[in-house]
Amino acid sequence: MHAAERQKRILEALRPTGFVSYRDLEILLDASPATIRRDLARMDDEGVIARVHGGAKLPESGDARLMGTPFDQNITRNLATKQAIGKAAAALCAPGEGVMIDGGTTTLQMCPHLDGLGLQVLTNSLHIVNALLPQVATRILLPSGAVFREQNIILAPAGEDSMPRFHAPRLFMGAAAVGPQGAMQADPVLVAAERRLIDRAEEVILLVDSSKFVSRSGTIVCGLDEVDILITDAGIDAGSRAMIEQAGARLIIA
User: Which residues form the HTH deoR-type domain (predicted)?
Assistant: First the structure.
């Protein structure tokens, strides 16, 4: 069992009571105590769990943390706004080039506007694959790995480089929240996969609707200084607009 799957199971074990013991984790994960300690230490550093004597617990409820939302529930939220953002993002693609599109309900809205551009698209999202399949001129590349059902994306084992030998001018990605610390996700198992995409891109383009500019803590995917372009809607507040501009990112209002 790879690290991403172990972390996912640890979070699942925590949800019923908010606490899980080391002994229970050894049985659940069939892993050594040393491996479990490393997993918990990493998750504690990321703020996802809190290590305590005898095991781990969920963070205190007073700390506003991101909560993951299943894809099929999230896709209808702010749909018109996401469609406008997706269209604006697709307009940045040049005919015939290679791009990377990370899985997400906002990045999915790019797909109808890519038809006819003859793009080569690397994506980890099965939803995006399904949207692009009817486009005969679009070439689709996928990494290898296991399917993460909640988001319908493909995740490779931790430490394994399963991406095709692919480098792209642009990466289009979403986020669960954006704050001064950077772009964040609710689920830490997504972060390693997104970092692999970031490392292969010359330009990182972040697609988020204005509701994502909230005060939350989560697992940081990248700092704002790593974002080249941020596309959002007119609902962005003045403070968030200033934060993005101070970080040096180009802001596009869809």
Answer: 3-58
